[in-house]
Amino acid sequence: MLGYALPREPNLRRTNAMPAEDAHLDAFIGAAAEALDLPVEPEWKPAVKANLAVTLRLAAMVAEFELPDEAEPASVFEA
């Protein structure tokens, strides 16, 4: 059983730390593709942008979730 309560409704608001504007996402995709020397076809960009926007929104939800000081990481079990 968890020692803390999960939020009932996730906070889906965007934070200033993530590029939410379309121009910012386009610039980020372009810079990442160039840095990785990864070709991104023009017809792929809408899907890449949509996936990146969802990923950033979910990352913001995780980052905003406050844990109590008593929270500890899960144990590691090895077979």
What structural keywords apply?
2 helices; mainly alpha; 79 residues; elongated
Structure write-up:
With 79 residues, the protein is mainly alpha-helical. The chain has a domain of 25 residues. Helices cover 43% and strands 0% of the residues. The longest helix is centred in the last third of the chain and has 20 residues. The protein is elongated and about 45 Å long. The N terminus is likely disordered.
The gist of it:
The chain is an all-alpha fold and 79 residues long.
Would you identify the regions where 5 or more consecutive residues have pLDDT less than 50?
A: 1-10, 14-19
Q: State the end-to-end CA separation.
A: 23 Å
The overall pLDDT average reads: 80
* Contiguous helical run count: 2
- The succession of helices and strands, N to C, reads HH
Topology, element by element:
Layout: H1 22-35, H2 45-64
Helix pairs in contact: 1-2
